[in-house]
User: What shape does this take?
Amino acid sequence: MSRISAAVLVSGIIVFGVIIAFELAVAPRTADPLNHAPLTLRDTGAVNAVSAILFDYRALDTLGEATVILMTATVVAFLTPRAKASMLAVRLSSIVLYGVVLLLPFITILGIAVMAHGHVSPGGGFTGGVIVATSTVFYAVVYSVGGQQSYVIAPAANKLIENTAMTAFIGVGLLGLGLAGSFLANAQTGIPLGTPGELLSAGTIPMLNLISGVKVGVGLGIIVMSLFLE
Amino acid sequence: MNSLLTELPVLLIVIPLAGVPLLYFTTRSGRGTALPALAVILVVVTLLSFSIRDAMHAPVVTAAGGWQPDLGIGLQFDLLAVAAMLVTSLIVAQAILSHDETSGAQHFRTLLMLLYAGSNGLMLTQDLFNAYVFIEITSIASYALVASRQDKGGFESAFKYVVMGSFAGLLVLWGIAGLYLTTGTLDMQSLAPRFDAAQGAVPALSAAAIIAGLLIKLGQVPFHAWKADSLSGASYTVSALLSGVTTTAFFVLLLRVLSALPSLTLSLAPVLTTIASLSIITGHLMALRQPRYSRLLAYSSVAHIGYGLLAVSSGAVTAIAAGLFHILVHAIMKSSLFFLGRSFLHTGNRSDRLEAIVFPEQYRKLHVTLYVLLAMSMIGIPPVLGFTSKWYAVLETARAGYHTGAVLIALGGAVALVYYLRVGIQLVHPGLPELSSPGPASRRLPVPLAGTALILLLAVFSDRLLAFCVQAVVQLLEAV
Amino acid sequence: MSGITAAVLQTVNTPHIESGAIFVSQAILLFGLLALVFVALHTRRSALWWVGAIVHIGAGALLPYTADMVSFFMIWELITVGAAIVLVCEPDAHGLLRRYLPWQLLAAALLLSGFALHFAESGSVALPAAGVTAGRILIGIAVAIKAALMPLHLWMVGTYARVRPGTAVVLSAVATKIGVFGVYRLLPGSISLEILGGIMATVAVLYALRQNRLRPFLAFHIISQVGYMIAGVGSAAAAAQIAGLYHLGNHIVYKGLLFMVVALMVPMTGTPNIYSTRGMGRRSFVLTVAAIAGALSISGVPPFNGYISKSLLQYSLVSPVAIHLLTIAGIGTALSFTKFLWHGFLRPGPLPQAHDVGEGLIARTGTRTITVALSLLCLLMGLYPRSFFAELPDSAGITQQSFESGLVWPVVGAALFFILYGPILRVLLVTLPGSTTVMNLLRSAGTRGLQLMQRQHTGDIRRYLGWAVGGTMLLWTWVLLAP
Assistant: This one.
């Protein structure tokens, strides 16, 4: 690309940036988006409106997004070279080694808790899954020394878990289809929504939270481990 | 069962998705068989064919999870989706049969199921953000498929594809956000009045960004340049999928977006016409001198999608139907041509340079016949389906008042003849001696037999097919 | 659409029966069958070749009867497909197809779009009796290509001169005639078409004079004769149209005869060069008679058939310019064929060595019988024109007076050959641009353009991304500025 065309492009981008920013700031909005927040408690029994939207109103989107993560994990695992790498020849200090061992259970428990409380407090499956993935990655990084790799979960098992979680997600959807005639239906199925704010409430939302948490955790684990081993 | 029918759109997405774990659980070794994947397609096609009658009557509208649009996601199963999904199902099934390499077959089929699910979702959804999710699924599956050849060329192609695809995704996402911000809805059915009532430039700019993103995905001038580079690095089977399945899905989505925003479509019509005309010219002229089979076909795709876009941008119902018809026919014939390319490999020849391609000894006459029929169809020589679809496109575009466009479509065939003839002469009189080591599956019948047979047989019913497309477009426009 | 189909079905059931169409169809069919018999007797051909040839001629004979645009186009394409199959069987299939098919497909594309425009305006697929109104320029170019009108003739000279001789006979029966029929059927009559025909007849004769090889020489004479036909059928006057059609029928016969003579001559004398051919007159009496009959017919000498149609054209054309042009073309034709007869048959001198190359000598008697039959046909079509084409006026025929007046211009042409041929040829060689020059100019311009376009596609992803960003911004600008 020549300099002139680059200059034209950049100035064009700036001009449109300014126009759009101005328009967004000034232009009146004729219609505001629907406010989900007041409805969620009645419809889904979930205190966390975000979770309600993610796992109930727009659960189909979430199924799609979870699929994207699964797919990315599969692709990364497939495409990265299989050669074993021994990148960590350095010995880590004992503080790190023991510190990780001490921290790991807490991190994992935190992750699971965030997943499980997705419908009553901030967080949810995606956040919790990332935290769990962090713990597995930590472990693998610290204990893969001298060419020997350590996993919390073996790669083959990872795949099994991923696919099981996917089946479970679809299974929950089919449950809704069977009971209420609508895929991924929640309250309509007759599942008790429970008392809002309690752990066992909001119908299928906690299940989907857990499932997607597992998927995200394992998926991210696969991705990071694949790239890390490269 | 009534509820099953109303849930049909969701099932059509979920069944291929469920195919992913199905493939995993039914496989012991890394290899597996093609049966589960074929079974999934069979189920989808059965569901489709049983519900055509209902869709003829009225579109099947579903609220996913029981939540009505605005709160939840709306999906719509109409004739447009039926027609496009039947075509894509055929191509996906052919792809499964075509992929005969043992290594990575399971991986390939998994990605194929995801691509299938994503493209089905693209064609069914009525919700803009949901469409974005399916764009992501379809795109990532395509990136992975392009890279799955795992050589330098494959990675380079995949990289270019990722860069352009991500830019397209960015534009679409930004556009969706802008539309949601200003109109307060993601649902295509209720978008039009709110879009017209919205003030300021943001709604129109956002919608234009979505359209630009889809045009990148479709590969129209000036967004076309990645197409040849990406398709030439992929394996023939993957190229067939990209030019058959994803293109069809994105075209259907573009149709839905355009019909959801009639006022914008009207004001954009001159631009779309210009883009389509430029695509026809550039595509055909660039294809003239391409040194490689896949690049040649890729540029020809640019031109053919231009035909469809040109007919669509004229705005008349019959013209839109003719454009849709041509896009569907093009998907079948172009993917068949790519599948045919796979036979080149069975001679042990890895290059797809035009002076090196040669069909295997086994079934050579059959292969050449298939090529001739498909090329006739691409050029638009009777009596094959490609001719009728092009004839309707020319006719209806002219009737809609786009005389220059009609002439362009008609003239494109004369240019196309030159390059298809160039390939054909090479295939009939191979310049190079055949390589001695035959490939892994040289004894099998060529896969595009199915597509070519359809191209021949359906030509008899082309006016009924067009009538079907007209009905589909009428449904599409009435729904808004 | 069902509407289109219904319209097509209605019109298909009622074929276009009209005396002009019947005459053209029968002429093509009759001569096509004779040509097939000729080839069967002359050389061996593969089964595929026969399929192609039969499709080609059959579709050609069917086309005049079509009454709607869809079947017209389909059969028009079928003619091309048949010819393509024939060409595939030729030795130099690659080069031939490259010369033949692009032009034909261009014609088909133009015809298709012209029809589409007409349909868009009239809403009917029926072919109007008075010629199309909308899209007539496109249709005009299409039929001009098929009829090998002068700057669009390269496909014909390139093909007919390179195929085997028998194939040239078959191909020459259909393609250009269909072009002429297209002018007759599709275009409304006008003075400009008359003048165009006249110009083409004259210019093509000048090019024919320059040729020193037999088959290009004949090919340019075809173009010239097609000019006569277009002047006739393109005229608004009904009498001129009839004359043009009759000329088409005559032309099919005498030109086929000449192609057959050339096909038999070349293997006997061993050279395709007019100037070095000689002595045919002493070698084969039958061929000499046939050649003279063909030459007299094409030059319009009474009582042969060319005279009838040419004299009728002279009387019935509207534009005096066209009439004068056709007279000049007639002199040129006579000059040119005097050259042919003189060098090939009549010139005294030592006989060249006979070259029996095998082909062409398989069945002397059979092929010669056909040439004799065609020579007789030329004579009969001149003596009894109205029994061949009932639409001709009563005045058509040979009288004492017309016989004498008809001899004037051919004699002038023959005299010019013996007196002025050298200077004329020198002037022509200098002034007329060669067709290869024009072609090369076009080709280099096209190549430059393509290279320029190709050089833009460098494969650099930053550049492509830049195009996409630029395209998006153009789209945005349009949206912002649009009302």
In short: Residues 357-363 of chain C have pLDDT under 50 and may be disordered. Chain C has three domains: 1-185, 189-431, 439-481. The first helix of chain C runs from residue 2 to 13.
